[in-house]
Specification:
With 309 residues, the protein is α+β, with helices and mostly antiparallel strands. Helices cover 38% and strands 25% of the residues. The strands form 4 sheets. A 7-stranded mixed β-sheet has the order 3-8-9-14-12-11-10. Strands 4-6-5 form a 3-stranded antiparallel β-sheet. 34% of the residues are buried. The mean pLDDT is 94.
């Protein structure tokens, strides 16, 4: 029997309420924005240690960027043209005393006080790898680079679906190098990530996917991305079996970021890039959905893999 949109929304709310009642999610009053309880955070931390163990042989450089990106660097990407609906732009108050008094007046009158704010030099990072590329401009070392990243990413997608948070953690291994190196990285991590998720008891399916490009032109970009099989997602049933949720993705960017940020290989060619990304909150949600709300009662083999006490 085909699941209807109403049934899907009901399933999302039922699962969200279970998570809230168990203390795993703390509602903020804004769709897709939650505090996380201790047991939930413990699962994420153990998952992070497991991913680190799986990727230990990569000998990756570890970099931790904040969850903001310079506006100048952001504008060198095509994100504004392709996915503006997901962006969070940071604005702040920069007025003097008269503007301050008007700001207070508007606030007290319940008017739109945000009109008093002006744009800053930063935006919220829509993907964890974005802050890396402007720092990699120039010539890569021989053999290229593999970089281990983790941070919160922001995407403006308010939803009742607990798996569609507006702020969420991504752990990534990014490859910068030749076309062959980038493709090999993508393909190797596709298999490695799939095995990782299966080892914690998740019902994983590998699918060709596309990014959520915006508008009429976005439909062409989606089709192209799928035809060239540039993006794969590993999907797991969380609130729906018919529409499983992506919990990890493996992406080949071709020379997109190499051109945008003038990144070159040691032999002077434009660099290609690829990445694997793990969505930690989504994987944790899949674990709770699959194994139950109490991690202490999860199967022993799953607890052993994640080294949960």
């Amino acid at each position: 029997m085909v699941e209807t949109g109403v049934e899907s929304e009901q399933n999302q709310r039922v699962f969200r309420d279970k998570l809230v009642n168990a203390g795993h999610l703390i509602p903020s009053g804004v769709k897709g924005v939650y505090g996380l309880g201790g047991a939930f955070e413990s699962v994420v931390q153990h998952l992070d240690l497991f991913v680190t163990k799986v990727g230990a042989d990569q000998n990756a450089e570890v970099i931790r960027f904040p969850s903001i990106l310079s506006r100048a660097a952001y504008e060198r990407t095509d994100h504004l043209e392709t996915m503006p609906h997901l962006l969070g732009s940071i604005h702040s108050f920069a007025g003097a005393e008269p503007e301050y008094l008007e700001l207070v007046r508007m606030h007290e009158a319940h008017e739109d006080w945000s009109r008093s704010f002006v744009r800053t030099d930063v935006v919220l990072a829509p993907a964890v790898c974005y802050p890396l590329y402007p720092t990699a401009s120039g010539t890569l070392p021989p053999g290229g680079r593999i970089v281990d990243l983790m941070a919160f990413a922001f995407r403006h997608e308010p939803s009742d679906d607990p798996a569609r948070m507006q702020m969420f953690r991504q752990r990534e291994y990014v490859r910068l190098g030749t076309q062959q190196q980038a493709l090999a990285h993508r393909d190797e991590w596709l298999t490695r990530a799939e095995k990782l998720l299966v080892s914690v008891g998740l019902d994983v399916t590998r699918v060709v996917a596309n990014d959520p490009f915006f508008g009429r032109g976005g439909r062409v970009m989606k089709a192209t991305q799928r035809e060239q099989e540039l993006k794969y997602e590993l999907v797991v049933p969380i609130t729906s079996r018919e529409k499983p949720t992506a919990v990890a993705s493996c992406n080949y960017h071709v020379d997109h970021f190499g051109v945008a940020f003038d990144i070159r290989t040691a032999d002077g060619e434009v660099a290609h890039t690829a990445c694997v990304g793990f969505g930690y909150e989504r994987i944790a949600l899949a674990l709770f959905n699959t194994h139950g709300m109490d991690p202490d009662l999860w199967p022993q083999d799953i607890k052993r893999v994640l080294e949960l006490s």
